[in-house]
Amino acid sequence: MRLKDKVAVITGSTSGIGKGSIKRFAEEGAKVVIWGMHKEEVDAAVNEINATGAEAFGVVANVAKQEEVNSAIEQVMNRFGRIDILINNAGITADAQLVKMTEDQFDNVIAVNLKGVYNCGQTVAKIMAEQMSGVIINVSSIVGLYGNFGQTNYAATKFGVIGMTKTWARELGRKGVRVNAVAPGFINTEMTAKMPEKVLEMMKGKSPLNSLGEVDDIANAFLYLASDEAKFVTGAVLSVDGGAVL
């Protein structure tokens, strides 16, 4: 098992890429922390993982609120005594063209997708620096590399996440902490399942492979970066997008 007894915290892990990654990490022996906004969803995900014989622990917190992040991390430390892996996966969208975007749309996306990554990263980095070991993986996006129509706020956060990733890699490397980013392309999740077929075909057409990615494609990228197989990889941005260009 590639992550045996490692403690892995994944934010936004009650659905989609986060939930799939929790399952994949548990299969590889990790003790997983399921982090969400709603207790009933967190409890359901914890029960699902525990039923497989793996060990899961749940926390309920809004990543945009530092006091809630601090409380969640304190709960994790009380339970496990260490954190080996943090995946900053939680994120939201509120799309609109620049001239139509409201202040709330902009501020809410910045709060979760950018400040939330900062809040969790800062809190956990202190623990990892003291341990002199750890891995932080920040979730960017293909939109954080190329931009996207109608996503000024989202693109700003995902570009920003890359900047934080490279900065943290420089700062934390001497403490034995690796920091990388993954930039997913268009992935088949509960969200895309609700989209019109015409939109899905457009998304598929952006990839030379003419398909959407699957949750496991991203989970496996996380797994590689979290494992010792990537022990000399830091400050990198791994695109998992089927070769899509915008």
Structure description:
The chain is of the alpha/beta class. 48% of the residues lie in helices and 17% in strands. The protein has helices spanning 16-27, 39-50, 66-80, 103-131, 143-146, 152-172, 190-193, 197-205, 215-226, and strands spanning 7-11, 31-36, 56-60, 85-88, 134-139, 177-184, 187-188, 213-214, 237-240. Helix 1 (16-27) crosses helix 9 (215-226). The longest helix is centred in the middle third of the chain and has 29 residues, at 103-131. It is globular, with a radius of gyration of 17 Å. 43% of the residues are buried.
List the helices and strands and how they pair.
Elements: E1 7-11, H1 16-27, E2 31-36, H2 39-50, E3 56-60, H3 66-80, E4 85-88, H4 103-131, E5 134-139, H5 143-146, H6 152-172, E6 177-184, E7 187-188, H7 190-193, H8 197-205, E8 213-214, H9 215-226, E9 237-240
Parallel strand pairs: 1-2, 1-4, 2-3, 4-5, 5-6, 6-9, 7-8
Helix pairs in contact: 1-9, 3-4, 4-6
Q: pLDDT under 50 segments (min length 5)? A: none
Mean pLDDT: 96
* Count of DSSP-assigned helices: 9
**Largest sheet: spatial strand order:** 3-2-1-4-5-6-9
Major beta sheet summary: 7 strands, parallel
Which CATH first-tier class would you pick? Alpha Beta
- In the CATH hierarchy, the architecture is 3-Layer(aba) Sandwich
Helix content: 40-55%
The count of DSSP E runs of length 2 or more, i.e. the number of strands, is 9
- Structural class designation: alpha/beta
- What is the H/E string? EHEHEHEHEHHEEHHEHE
When the domains are counted, the total is 1
Proportion of residues in β-strands: 15-25%
The coarse silhouette is: globular
Query: What is the CA-atom radius of gyration, in angstroms?
Result: 17 Å
Assigned CATH superfamily: NAD(P)-binding Rossmann-like Domain
CATH topology tier name: Rossmann fold
